[in-house]
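Progress against Task 2.4 (sequence-to-structure conversion) is shown through the following example record, which the project officer requested during the mid-term review.
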Amino acid sequence: MSEDIAREFEPVTDENEIEFIARLRYVCWCCYRLGVISLLDSWDTDKVDLYDYRDTMCSDFDWDAPEENIENLMDGVRFLESRPGLTPEHNHMNWMVNMARKGWGYGPVKNPKKKTHPDMVPYDELPTVEKAKDEMDVNAQKKAKELLKFFKERFSDG
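Structure tokens generated for the chain above:
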């Protein structure tokens, strides 16, 4: 029993497995964005804690993850795997640090040419919808690890 618990917290270090987790997180993120758009279509958005989510975050929606997004997500996977127990706030701080290193800063609208992003703010200043996305992201990583374990147990030779 204690070996199972230890294995659950064992960090993923294989690059193929890290990429698998990153790509699964990306798909979860895409689904989250689609869900938010769907809700916005049915809600009075003036009463929702959003900053024009559809225009700023959903205008560049693409199921085919750009390689830069996957690289960023792989960095996030490595970060969370190297430090068990991190929170969505830690995940967001790591993302901000990595984006700042690449020259990104705050802007009211996501603009890749200007390298501005509305989420380049401390976690507690994020809109609720973004905090929920960060929580979903951390949980998606946990679920991806469970799925990876399932695949290994059933399909791996070793």
